[in-house]
Each structure stands twice: as structure tokens, then as C-alpha cells.
């Protein structure tokens, strides 16, 4: 038995006081937690309580000599810290008292502090200078429960699909030569088609189960196999098949849809041209109707007006070609026409030229190519005529009279693809983060001179800051994308325009997030992350282009911002636009209350962790940006500037609004989901992940909130500290969190994760 | 002759007023410029002056109806705007008066305003609704003059070298198979060796010209050919040859140095181990001296203690191996020993195992491999013995008694390599930016409905914001790296430790900058940037690892921060460390004056463009971060926390300080350079680039400056506006600016740049 000057009553609290004061995060409410524990602690006499109350004064913290006494008391105890215990600090305290005194009952009040202050072993294990029984990872949470929450109602489909991915056809290997790689991916796509997965989103009559949301999940899982596979599969069944499904009518469905889904008819989606990527309305390919023969002539007018970057261009038998439809000499705008490209022997048909796009930064298993049409004839029936048709008399017909609206309705069919691209990006981020986290839990580097073993790199605060907020963001966006897909797939919805705007924004922030996450993982794994065998390199190369295709992110964000400005319905450039902006401005202005200085400097944990605060901050930002944007544009227009130019002047502001709105939306959807998790333990975890996401977002945009006076300096720093602290709190659960992504073991082939 | 209600005197000023008021950037000092022009303008009568003075009141701006009148006056004039004129707005004004009145002399006062307000055609050409004779690029500056300023005293070497790079051996081609690629790069390296470029940094006696600074420039230029070539060349002559030069003595130089430089003796640099990358001191390979035979036994103790990621491992005949030197049973710390790897027939020598690292994200032309040694014997002479030797009696000798200092002295030899890596990263960024800018000057997308031609994407504000600050940063870092290399190459300097610290920081910020720049260029070029043929993809893959090798950036920045904290000399973890921190704290505290609110909200152009403001902001940030860091660490230590743990707790703060210091340093060096540019026109341009860099840095870290109250909200917004404005002002010069990087035409092979 050692000697100590402290009473038993005080002794049991000493580890707690030492932990509390070694850091500077003690808030008023946390002091209350500790005080309350004294009050309910029957083992304490009044003089003990008074002594300890003295130690709880934020303005008069205990002297450093006192802290050193505590430290010696702890170090000299010879007690081991066992991280895997349910209440490691309370257990440690109990054993500490035992080592000095004869009696040592377990004190429930200590447990109460430990829980309510969220004290984690990795916050204090380095402070004690005692033997530590380390725990690399905690099993407090259960990965398959987390996975189940993310899978939601698609669990059955996903489990079957993940099992299928164990088929040797999906074995990962390095493929440098594009011809071999494309051949391999083609076989995989055909295999999936044969198993029925290509038709998942199609009606039952064509081999499907009409389940687009489940399809999106499967699409994400394909990223764990290979990015090229996901994209080629998406081109075949989502873009080519999808265009037939959404733009065609029964005759096209009956002819082609089943074969497209079963990957028996290979096709491509020929929209983009070399000179027209983002500006689809300006494409130059023409589809001229010949009344006499009831044929359509597909033609590429200039050398550089070819279709560009068309996935499946080298394997396809047919293409959905977007072209300016000219009927009786009048341009009726962009329409889609099915054009056969090759015959049964895979020879190009007359008038068609295809050129390989060659090697790319990634996705080399996808055969992208350029296509030219030289007066190619197809029958009138090949026009995908759901939104515009040519009747037997050679007259153009459409139920949508406004050509602008017609164009956007047709483009609306791309929206599902955008959700899937975001989903695939997210899958890439999850894969990279899983690899990086597992590596960080095995890799050691540097140490304290007294230690034999070097530290795990996952225990470095900078490493935690690199990876943990990104893991949290993956959880948030998993839910976000589920919700937006459900909204999109709901045919009864009247909010189509709004959903399209939201998808545009979410696709942008999520694909950028995915790229950042993968890059961070590459660097976090050092040179090992650079080796192809460890998978992150390919993910980086593959996901990179997601920020560009299916809509360039900067263009999409401007689209989103314009949608917000017009409240998702009014047309731009119209005469009344200025008054729309004025109305919008005054509406928002009423809601933008002045921020109270007490609020802008409130740093209590209860406040910072409150979803109300997060929601308010996100909403304030969106509203304020909308208001100032509307006012700026209006002022330019009033000075006589054409609205096109006015929008150019505020381009950066548009991007900021698009991002702000999308993050608000993502958090909103996520919180709605977490509030309904039945199991409390998991609900609290999901809430914590949401809090980390929200605080990290505010931290990343702190300059703006500070500029607006929405947060003060103290609050800005407190938010930063809370982000660091949350990362540290989640440290023991990192492995479970990434396992919760549900990436099948048979696809985790990176040698550094073993 | 049209009609107008304005007098000739006023009429000539109308385009100026319209331009000024269409924007919101008019500052007090700019109003003064305009007022002064009135005063000196003899063509004005008093009533004209009074009318126009009314139009200059910031608090009572002209009514929108007045602006519309101006606009109509301009639009109805039928005058063309010719952007290529020397003073386009003044000329336009002159012609405007001519179109309404009979006499129209050129007014010098207008020219005065145009110059002093920095009004550029691209600020107003969209406002006028008149015919515009566009200028894609301006020839006001001369690219070869800019190039000459960047080449400095190395012009002769560089010009010769760039001409040599036209040799067909450097022709760019896609190489997917690593064996072919490596063979090609090997031939190129041998070619450069034969031409004498390998020995540039070596003494004359060994075939060189002892010019390390010129070598660094050449190294940057190799990136324009291929990243693998640069890196393999650097491994051979910089790391392998460099280790012989810097760690060896005359016997080694005489034996090996000439052949290393001429690339006749291929070698590698075997430092990193699988389990020890950043923590070199912990490497496990042993070099045990056997007194009896005067031999050293090189041995890899465990399966995972192999040398890892060693460049040239498959081609090398010899390696500089870093190992724990054990003499008479005592570990004398890490030393370098020359170890032959293969015989003349390129067969591995007994006891040596080499394994290919396989495919990587980039640099696949470099043969990286793993090496194991199984009791390999080399003679005593093979110890590179400049800093530590074994004498003939078998006793270890070193002039540097402190093992710690000895270790860091040896590692100091890596510093030159770090500068070169940063230089190569910079070269990658320049190449990517050149491609992206040229593409943006050719690519059109979208347009105003009234225009026939779509807009150049370089004319989009967001595109300018993406690329222009990065072009400016390339200029800044070109100068920075020149200066730091000169300091490093100066053998008489006593500041070795300080220079090493500075290099650590600069290498980190520049390689990160390079990666960001290349990524931005990839996205700015859309799908075209993704094609290998357009070069950016390979640059991305190659430069990616620069953030990791030659020192991981996060580790280097911590090193830099610790150097700053210790004022570049004192040892850490020593007993007196806490008092060093205390002293440092009080020293800085005296200098950290409170920021005056007038200063923190000063937004005049003269102030925002003043280098004094930039320097002060950078310095304030470094000092403040140093002070708060020192105080935090000291407080932890006083509470009894071991210093190793205290440093862990502040890891993120260390990174922030390392970055802040490095940016301050870069700007400091750059300004010293620009102040001495003789030619005024170019000096002003360089100053403008420096201003853009400085303001952009403050903008990027605005959250911190706002938190500290160093800048207020108004100033933060003004800085953002100035960054946008500077990008717009530099828009006409973008092509000349990237041409100023001096990348030879014969290496600009990307099809999108043509």
C-alpha cells in the first residue's frame, strides 16, 4: 500500500480532475455535471466536497503544483489502465483507491461523469505514465448494425449482390493495356446483365424490378470492384437503356429495353460533342427529317462537331444520338434518335466513323470514343418520341409547347445518372477511407523516447483530423443520396424541377468531396498509397472525372443557384425577373434577423452539439447568400446590364450559394433520418457523426460566418476545438465505422490493409 | 451625327463614369484620381465640372436613370471598341465625342484616369453593347523578357539545355508497359549523363561545373519532358551521386563521382525501409564492423525491414545504404555505406534480394524496388566517412561528438534534393497551367443569346479565379526557390540549420500548391484534361507523390515549426526547453501590438496593394502563431505532460505555423527580388503578381485573420474583391504570363493547346 495525502473520497476523483484540467475545454455545463456528482455522492464528507469545489473554478484553476501532485499520485499507484473496460476511467479510479486505501467500492457517480463528459481513454492515456493495456479498436458498436442502417430497405438486394461479387470474374488485377482491360470489363458487364442486375430499374415486363433506389446502391458497390466496371455498366444500362426507357415509347421499349438491360444489345449515349460539352443546347449534329422517305438523316456538319468521349463507343451496336431535329426546315431543338452503329459482324455501318479516345487518367477499362455521322439514314420510328414526335404527315408534334421546357424535360432524364455518379464517387471515398483507416491502425512511426513500440499513426491528431471528418461525411451523404433518389424515383412528385436542382448541387459537392477524400487517403498512406496494388491510386484516377462528366460541377452549381434564386420555377431572362428578385430579397430580408452577440459567442457544448444550431447556421448562410446575390444581380440589371452579363459578374457568388444550399440540404436529410433511428446507441453515434459533419462544415467556412458576425472569434475557435475533440472521441471506433460501410472482405485486396 | 443632351466636355467622360459606376469598387483615392483629372482638364467649363462632381459622390451615387442615359448614349454612338489600342477606353471616348460632335481631340486626362484606375477592356466591354474588336491576348508584355527574369544568371545553361530537349530521344509518347517505359527513361538519363548534365553540381575535377542552382533549373525543365525522367535522373545524380559527394571523402569521389555523374555507374539511394519512412533514425538495417577482416556486414534483420521504394533499384549496380553502424558492439547511429548490388552481367550479388515495387499512380518510368541484405560483406573503405569513420584499429571516430547532431548533419545532404523536388513540382504546375490557359483561350462555351460566337472560357470570372492566382504563385515560387537554393549552395553560410528548416517548409507548401494547381487545371480542361495525350493527367500522377517523398509534408512542416520555436538552434526535449519557450513568448509578445480598428478596416487600394501591408500581415500571423504555440506547449509541460505528448497535442497548430512561416518567407524573398527589377514595366507586373499572391493568401486564411481581429469584415470582403479584380486585370496577359515560364514549343505537345 502506497502513501498519499488525499482522503479516499478525494482520491477517487483525482484521475478525473487531472484529465479535466490537463485540457482547457471545461465548460460551465460540464462543471455542473461534476458538481452534481458530488451532491449525489454519499461517500464524500463535506470537507472533501469543499476541497474539490475549489478545484472547479474556471477563473482560479488549481495550481500547477497541485496538478503535479495528482500526477505523482497516479503514476506511483502502479495501477494499469485497461482501455477495453466499459468505464475505463472509473475502473482506474477504483483501482487507484485500492492501491492506497483498504476499501474501494465502485462509485456510480464517477461513471456518471465519465459518460456525461464523454471522456475517452485516448484523451488521457498519455497523461498518466502508467502501464496501458491498449485497445487498437473498440467493439462498443457493431459494424453490421451500422451497415444495416445504411442499407435500409435494400438489404436483401445488396447482400445478394455483394455475395455475387465474390465470383472470380470480379477478381482484381492490374490491367495496363486498354484492350485487355476493356475486354475484361465488357465480360463483367455482360455477366451482370445476365444475372438481371442491368434491368433493376426497368419495369417488370422488361426483366426488371423497377427499383431505381436499389440500383443506385448496387452501382456504388461496383466501385469496390473497379471504377471502369461501374461506369461502363452505367453507360450501358443507365444512359443507353435509360434513354430508351425515359425518352422512348412502348415500341422502343418492346424492341430494345429487355436486351439493353440484359446487355445483349450494347449501346452508347452520344450527347457531348468536342465543341459542346456543358452547353448541350448548342450541339451541332443535325437530324433532318425527309418527309418523302420517312427517314431521318443524321449528320455531323464540321470536323470538330463529332460526338466526343462516348462510353461504349467501340463495343456498341447502337447509339442514342442527340441532335438538332429539323422538320420541314424548322429546328425543333435537341432530340434523341436511335442510330445503329455496327452490323452483326461488328463492322461499322456506312457513313459512321469511330475513333478511340485513347488512354485516360483513369477508367481505362471504358472504351471512350469519338463518333462522326456522314448523312446516316434511320427510319422515323427511331426518334425517341415521348416528348416530341413527327407524325405520318411529316408534322412535328409535342405536348410540351415551350421548346425550352421541352429541352429541360428531356435533360431531366440525366438526373438519375447524376445521383448514381455521386453514389459511385461516395463508394470510391468509402473504399479509400477504409483502406487508409485500416493502414493507420497497423502502421507505426515515431515514438516517445521511453516507449519501445512506435505510435500507431491513427493516434496522431493530424491523422485523425485528416480522416475522421471524411468518414463522418460519408455517413451523411449515404443518407442524403438515398433520400434524393427516393424523391427522384417518386413519379407522383410535382417537384421535379426542384429535385433536379438539388441533384445538381449534391452531385457537385459529393464528387468534389470524394476526390478530396481519396487524395487525403493517398497522402495519409504515404508511398504505400501510391502503389497501384493498394487500390487508392486507381480510385483517384477513376473518380477524378466524376467532377466533370454528367455535368461539370461548376456549371451544375450555377444551375442549382439559379434554381434557388428563381424558387425552382420561374424562368430566367424574362422581363419580370428583376421584380422576382426584389420580392425574393424582401421575403428573405424579413427572415434574416440580426445575430445576438450572446448567440454568436455561445460556446457551450450543449449549444455547439445541438442540431438546432447547425440547422440555423446552414439556413442562415443559404438565406444570406441568396439575399445578397439577388440584390447584387438586381442592382446590375437596374444599371442596364444585360442579365447574362450580370450573372457572369456574380459567378463566384453563385458557386458559393450552390454549395451552401447543398450542404444545408444534405444535413437536413441526414438529421431527419437519424432522429428516427430506433436503437438509442446507434442513434447517438449517428448524431455524433452528424455533429462532426456540421461543425466541420462551419469550420471550413468560418471566414464567411466570421465576416457576417454570425460567429465570433471565441466561437470559431471553440468549434475548431470541438472538431478535434470529436475526432479524438471517435478514434476508438474508426475501424468499426469504416467496416460499417459494408465493403465485402473479398474485395478488400489492398495488401496494406492486412 | 447623332443627338445627345450632353456637352462635349461631359460626353468624353461618360464611358468612364459608366464603367466606374457599373461596379462598386470606387474608393476615396480613386475618386481623387478622377477629380484631379477634371482640375487639369482645360477642355472643361465650370458647369461641366460641377455636374460631374455630383456624379462622384459615393454616398449619393447617380440615379439609375442617369446610368441608363449614359448607356444609351454609348450604345447609340455606333462606335467600335478596339481592345488592342494602347488606351482603348480613352480612344473609345474620343470616337464617341466625334460621333456626336464635330471636334474630338485626344484628351490626355482620360488616359491619366485609365492608367491610374487600372481600367481594362475586359472590365467593361460587355457593358457597352457596341461592336467589340476582341483581343484574345495582349502583347503589352513580352514573354521572353519575363522568361529572362526567371532564368536570371542561368540563362545560358538553360537555353542550351532547352535546345537539347528537342532531340528525338525526348519525344513524348504514351508508355503503358513499365518495362518499356523504364528502358526509355534509362536511355534518356544516360544521354543526359553523356552530355555532362549529370555532373553539373559536382566539382570540375569530376566532370562538373559545381553549379547546383543551375542544376535545379534544369531539373525543373526535365518535368516538361516527363516526370519519370526528372525523378530517375535526380535519384542517379542527386541522391546516389550526391551522397558520394556530400557524405564521402576524396577516395570515394575519385573512385565513383565522375562515373555517377556521367551515368556510367548506376546507383541508388537506399534509406527508407518498409516500416521506417519518415522516422529514418529508427531504421533497422545494420552495418556491423568486423575488426578482424576490416569488413562491414550489411544485414536486414526482419522480413519487413527491407529497403523500400528505392528508385533505380532494378538498374543499379551499387547502392548507398543507410544502416545502424555497430562498431565494437556499440551502435554509433545511422551511417551510409556503399554496397555493390550487381555484377557486370547485371546479376544480383550473393545475399542481395531485389523485388519490383510494381505499378504506381505515376512515375512508372522509374524502377522502384525493395532490397533485402543477408549478411552482405563490404570493405571498410565503403563507409562514406566524412562525418564518422572507423580507423585501422577498429575504433569509431567522428568530429561531431553529439550523435544527434551527427545524424542531422548527414540528413542535411537531403536538403538539396528537397529543393529540387519542389522545383520539379513547380515545373509540373507551370506545364499544367500553360496547357489549361492556352486551352481556355481557344475553348468557347455558352453565350449571350444575342451573340453569334460563344464566350472564351478564359473570360469567365470563375475560370480566372481558378487559374490566375496559381499562375501568380508560380512566379513567386520560382524566385523563392532560386533564393533558397542560392542560400543552400553557399558553403560559407553559418545558417545551415535555419536553411534546412526553411527548405522543409517551402518543399511542403510548394508541392501541395503544385498538386492543387494541376488538379485545378485538370478540371478546368474538363474531359480533355483527362486524356493522357493532353499531359495534365500524367503530371497529376507524377507530382502526386512529391508531397510524400524526400520527406512527408506533414512531418516536414512539424520540423519547420519546431525550428521556428527553437529559433533554429536549441535542442528540444532538453531540461531548459520550457524556459526557452517562456523567453520566446515574452519576446514575441512585445512585438504583437494590438491592431488598430482603423487599420483592420482600411480598404483603400493604396493600402491593400502595399507590400508593407502584406509583409505585416504575414509576419503578424507567424508571430502570433509562434506565440500562442509556445504558450500552449509550455502550459502542457507545466502541468507535467511529457514534451513528446505536448507536441502531439498541438500538432495541428504546428502545421499552421509551418505553413504561415513558409508563405511569409516566400513573399519576403519575392519582394526583395521584384524591388530590384530594373525595367519599370516588368517590375510593375511582377509587383502585381506578388500582390495577387499576397492577397490571395490572406483570403485563403481569412478565417484566422478575422478571428484575430487583424482584419474586419469589410476588409475581408474588399480583399476578396481585389483578388477577383486582379484576376480580371491580368486576363489580357494570361498567355504572355504562361509563355513567360519558358516551356519550349517542342515540348508543348498537348493537342488541346493548338
Automatic annotation (TrEMBL), chains A, B:
Domain Acyl-CoA oxidase C-alpha1: from-to ranges: 412-564
InterPro entries, per database record: ACOX_C_alpha1, Acyl-CoA_Oxase/DH_mid-dom, Acyl-CoA_Oxase/DH_mid-dom_sf, Acyl-CoA_oxidase, Acyl-CoA_oxidase_C, AcylCo_DH-like_C, AcylCoA_DH/ox_N, AcylCoA_DH/ox_N_sf
Pfam families for the chain: ACOX (PF01756), ACOX_C_alpha1 (PF22924), Acyl-CoA_dh_M (PF02770), Acyl-CoA_dh_N (PF02771)
Keyword list, A-Z: FAD, Fatty acid metabolism, Flavoprotein, Lipid metabolism, Oxidoreductase, Peroxisome
Domain Acyl-CoA dehydrogenase/oxidase N-terminal: 153-259
UniProt enzyme class: oxidoreductase
Protein name: acyl-CoA oxidase
Organism: Kriegella aquimaris
Species lineage: Bacteria, Pseudomonadati, Bacteroidota, Flavobacteriia, Flavobacteriales
Amino acid at each position: 500500500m502506497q502513501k498519499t495525502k488525499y482522503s479516499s473520497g478525494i482520491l477517487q476523483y483525482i484521475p478525473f480532475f487531472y484529465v479535466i484540467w490537463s485540457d482547457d475545454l471545461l465548460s460551465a455545463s460540464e462543471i455542473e455535471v461534476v458538481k452534481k456528482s458530488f451532491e449525489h455522492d454519499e461517500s464524500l464528507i463535506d470537507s472533501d466536497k469543499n476541497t474539490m469545489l475549489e478545484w472547479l473554478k474556471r477563473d482560479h484553476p488549481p495550481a500547477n503544483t497541485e496538478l503535479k501532485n495528482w500526477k505523482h499520485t497516479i503514476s506511483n499507484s502502479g495501477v494499469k489502465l485497461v482501455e477495453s473496460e466499459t468505464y475505463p476511467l472509473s475502473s482506474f479510479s477504483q483501482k487507484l483507491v485500492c492501491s492506497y486505501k483498504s476499501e474501494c467500492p465502485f462509485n456510480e457517480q464517477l461513471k456518471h461523469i465519465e459518460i456525461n463528459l464523454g471522456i475517452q481513454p485516448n484523451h488521457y492515456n498519455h497523461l498518466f505514465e502508467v502501464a496501458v493495456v491498449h485497445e487498437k479498436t473498440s467493439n462498443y458498436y457493431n459494424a453490421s448494425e451500422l451497415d444495416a442502417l445504411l442499407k435500409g430497405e435494400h438489404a436483401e438486394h445488396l447482400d445478394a449482390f455483394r455475395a455475387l461479387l465474390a465470383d472470380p470474374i470480379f477478381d482484381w488485377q492490374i490491367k495496363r493495356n486498354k484492350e485487355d482491360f476493356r475486354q475484361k470489363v465488357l465480360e463483367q458487364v455482360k455477366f451482370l446483365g445476365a444475372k438481371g442486375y442491368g434491368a433493376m430499374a426497368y419495369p417488370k415486363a422488361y426483366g426488371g424490378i423497377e427499383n431505381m433506389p436499389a440500383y443506385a446502391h448496387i452501382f456504388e458497390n461496383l466501385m469496390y470492384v473497379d471504377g471502369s466496371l461501374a461506369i461502363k455498366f452505367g453507360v450501358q444500362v443507365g444512359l443507353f437503356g435509360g434513354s430508351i426507357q425515359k425518352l422512348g415509347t412502348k415500341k422502343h421499349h418492346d424492341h430494345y429495353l429487355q436486351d439493353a438491360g440484359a446487355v445483349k444489345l450494347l449501346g452508347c449515349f452520344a450527347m457531348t460533342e468536342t465543341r459542346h460539352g456543358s452547353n448541350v443546347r448548342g450541339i451541332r449534329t443535325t437530324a433532318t427529317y425527309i418527309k418523302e422517305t420517312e427517314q431521318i438523316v443524321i449528320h455531323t456538319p464540321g470536323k470538330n462537331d463529332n460526338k466526343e468521349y462516348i462510353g461504349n463507343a467501340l463495343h456498341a451496336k447502337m447509339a442514342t444520338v442527340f441532335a438538332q431535329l429539323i422538320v420541314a426546315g424548322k429546328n425543333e431543338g435537341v432530340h434523341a434518335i436511335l442510330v445503329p452503329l455496327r452490323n452483326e459482324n461488328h463492322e461499322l455501318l456506312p457513313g459512321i466513323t469511330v475513333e478511340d479516345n485513347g488512354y485516360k487518367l483513369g477508367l481505362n477499362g471504358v472504351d471512350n470514343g469519338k463518333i462522326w455521322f456522314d448523312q446516316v439514314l434511320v427510319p422515323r420510328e427511331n426518334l425517341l418520341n415521348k416528348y416530341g414526335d413527327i407524325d405520318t404527315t411529316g408534322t412535328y408534334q409535342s405536348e410540351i409547347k415551350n421548346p425550352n421546357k421541352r429541352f429541360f424535360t428531356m435533360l431531366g432524364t440525366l438526373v438519375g445518372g447524376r445521383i448514381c455518379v455521386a453514389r459511385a464517387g461516395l463508394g470510391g471515398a468509402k473504399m479509400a477511407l477504409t483502406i487508409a483507416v485500416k493502414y493507420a491502425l497497423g502502421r507505426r512511426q515515431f515514438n516517445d523516447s521511453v516507449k519501445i513500440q512506435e505510435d500507431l499513426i491513427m493516434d496522431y491528431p493530424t491523422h485523425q483530423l485528416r480522416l475522421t471528418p471524411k468518414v463522418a461525411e460519408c455517413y451523411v451523404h449515404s443518407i442524403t443520396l438515398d433520400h434524393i433518389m427516393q424523391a427522384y424515383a417518386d413519379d407522383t412528385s410535382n417537384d421535379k424541377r426542384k429535385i433536379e436542382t438539388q441533384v445538381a448541387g449534391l452531385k457537385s459537392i459529393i464528387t468534389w468531396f470524394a476526390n478530396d477524400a481519396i487524395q487525403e487517403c493517398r497522402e495519409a498512406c504515404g508511398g504505400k498509397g501510391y502503389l497501384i496494388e493498394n487500390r487508392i491510386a486507381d480510385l483517384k484516377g477513376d473518380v477524378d472525372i466524376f467532377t466533370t462528366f454528367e455535368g461539370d460541377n461548376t456549371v451544375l452549381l450555377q444551375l442549382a443557384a439559379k434554381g434557388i434564386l428563381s424558387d425552382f420555377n420561374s424562368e430566367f431572362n424574362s422581363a419580370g425577373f428583376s421584380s422576382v428578385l426584389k420580392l425574393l430579397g424582401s421575403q428573405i430580408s424579413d427572415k434574416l434577423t440580426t445575430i445576438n452577440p450572446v448567440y454568436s459567442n455561445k460556446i457551450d457544448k450543449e449549444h455547439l452539439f445541438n442540431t438546432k444550431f447547425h440547422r440555423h447556421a446552414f439556413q442562415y448562410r443559404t438565406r444570406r447568400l441568396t439575399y445578397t446575390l439577388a440584390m447584387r444581380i438586381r442592382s446590375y440589371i437596374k444599371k442596364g446590364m444585360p442579365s447574362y452579363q450580370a450573372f457572369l459578374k456574380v459567378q463566384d457568388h453563385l458557386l458559393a450559394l450552390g454549395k451552401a444550399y447543398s450542404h444545408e440540404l444534405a444535413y437536413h436529410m441526414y438529421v431527419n433520418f437519424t432522429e428516427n433511428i430506433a436503437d438509442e446507441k446507434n442513434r447517438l453515434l449517428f448524431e455524433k457523426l452528424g455533429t462532426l459533419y456540421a461543425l466541420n462544415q462551419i469550420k471550413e467556412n468560418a471566414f464567411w460566418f466570421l465576416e457576417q458576425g454570425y460567429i465570433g472569434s471565441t466561437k470559431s475557435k471553440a468549434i475548431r476545438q470541438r472538431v478535434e475533440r470529436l475526432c479524438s472521441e471517435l478514434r476508438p471506433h474508426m475501424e468499426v465505422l469504416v467496416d460499417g460501410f459494408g465493403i465485402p472482405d473479398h474485395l478488400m485486396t489492398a495488401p496494406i490493409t492486412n
